[in-house]
Design brief:
With 376 residues, the protein is α+β, with helices and mostly antiparallel strands. The chain folds into three domains: 127 residues, Beta-Lactamase; 125 residues, no CATH class; 105 residues, Orthogonal Bundle (Arc Repressor Mutant, subunit A). It is 59% helix and 9% strand. Strands 1, 2, 3, 4, 5 and 6 form a six-stranded mixed beta sheet that branches. Helix 6 packs antiparallel against helix 7.
Length: 376
């Protein structure tokens, strides 16, 4: 690993008092596991896939990505790209507490930062670490070509349509192992039966990516996310001028795509739910529409409502009202505030509606709750 990157990481960690680590994308491992917080985290989550997801997302989102782990802690990922714009490593900063300390069961003496400061850190990390790190990809290229050559069982010069159908079914059925095997066979046919014609290989590669995308969506993958990946790949494939560079890129694409389809569903939902709840907790005192939240997390309204209900067992509207009622309980103990003030400060324009929801949730009216000093 580049010594300059390691030097910057050390300075960054000491300056901002935040852990910063190197993540090897191919090995799916951190450079210093002994000092890694996640390795000893009591939650025992799949932190490797969590951070792999963060690294892949950072490539999509302007070389930086802020995400949540299952514990509700914040991490920041930026990619280290080689000369082919393929990510060899990621730089992971965190964990960080973002928000009210009382929202966390255990803080583990982690740094607590406001949202704006976390965003500033992400910008600085991107500026410092994202410049390309030149790397030799020969071993990676040879290994990839050897894998697909060994799996090549098709001797016919005709394109194996039957394998495509098998691949579609394996993706829809979420059979990761079989999908990888079939992908290698199809790639083997493309690479070894195209007479080294780069344009033909590019064309077949794009066709295969479209096939992967449609199958993934049919298998339940997030439509917006798959389309975003697909769009990036179509733009990227045209830049390659040699078979070697294209093969390295294709190997990276396959690993990334398969990970998104088969490995990241739980991680994506966890990250998304925390982003949604954090947005609501920061904006409960304002008018919050479903469109506002959907735009914030880059999801459609329908998909947003679906995953939130599935994961939280409560609708978004009811969750917003729950947060507002919880906040109003604290404000009601301040006798200098009128009931109208409390309603307005917690996002309710109508005091009667606030009273109705409060009584339904708590069992007494806001006035009675105040009289009893919250002891009901």
């Amino acid at each position: 690993m580049n010594e300059l990157i390691e030097k910057y990481i050390s300075h960054f960690s000491k300056l901002f008092e935040v852990d910063c680590n190197i993540f090897d994308i191919r090995l799916k491992s951190f450079s210093d596991m002994e000092k890694l917080f996640c390795a000893s985290c009591p939650n025992k989550c799949d932190y490797i896939n969590t951070h792999l997801y963060g690294c892949y997302e950072s490539v999509r989102w302007d070389n930086k990505y802020i995400y949540y782990c299952p514990m509700g802690f914040i991490f920041i990922a930026v990619p280290i790209l080689n000369e082919l714009d393929i990510m060899d490593y990621g730089i992971i900063s965190g964990p960080i507490l973002m928000g009210n300390i009382e929202d966390f069961d255990e803080t583990y003496n982690l740094p607590n930062m406001h949202t704006s400061k976390v965003n500033h850190l992400a910008e600085i990390m991107s500026a410092v670490f994202a410049p390309r790190l030149k790397a030799n990809n020969n071993d990676f290229t040879e290994g990839f070509l050897n894998d697909i050559y060994k799996s090549l069982e098709v001797t016919s010069e005709d394109y194996p349509i039957g394998l495509e159908k098998e691949l579609q079914n394996s993706i829809i059925e979420h059979d990761s192992k079989m999908s990888r095997e079939l992908l290698n066979k199809l790639l083997g046919h493309i690479f070894f039966h195209s007479n080294s014609d780069l344009n033909i290989i590019k064309s077949r590669t794009l066709e295969l990516i479209v096939l992967l995308s449609r199958s993934a969506i049919e298998g339940g993958a997030n439509v917006n996310q798959i389309f975003a990946l697909n769009n990036n790949y179509i733009k990227e494939v045209e830049q390659f001028q040699t078979l070697e560079n294209l093969s390295v890129w294709m190997a990276s694409v396959i690993n990334r795509f398969v990970s998104y389809v088969f490995e990241f569903n739980d991680v994506k939902h966890t990250d998304m739910i925390y982003k949604i709840t954090a947005y609501i907790k920061e904006n409960y005192m304002k008018k919050i529409s479903l469109d506002d939240i959907a735009n914030h997390v880059y999801l459609s309204r329908s998909y947003l409502s679906k995953i939130f209900k599935e994961e939280m067992d409560i609708s978004i509207t009811n969750y917003i009202n729950k947060i507002r009622i919880d906040k109003s309980k604290i404000l009601l103990l301040d006798i200098s505030l009128s009931l109208v003030d409390v309603a307005n400060l917690t996002g309710f324009d109508d005091q009667s509606y606030f009273t109705k929801l409060f009584r339904k949730a708590v069992g007494v009216s806001p006035g009675k709750y105040r009289e009893k000093h919250g002891k009901i």
